[in-house]
Amino acid sequence: MKKIVTIQDISCFGKCSLTSALPIISAMGIETAVIPTAVLSTHTGGFKGYTFRDLTGDIPQIAEHWKKLGLDFNGIYTGYLGSVEQVRIVSDFFDDFGNSENFIVVDPVMGDSGKFYAGFTEKFVREMKKLCSKADFIIPNITEACLLLDIPYKEDYSQENVKNILVNLSELGCRVPVLTGVQSGNKHGAMAYDSEKNVFCSSFREHIDGYVHGTGDIFASVFTGAVTLGKSLQESLDISVGFTADCIRATLPCMKEMWYGTCFEYCLGELTDYAKESRK
Ligand code: PXL
Question: What local confidence, expressed as pLDDT, does residue 275 receive?
Answer without folding.
Answer: 96
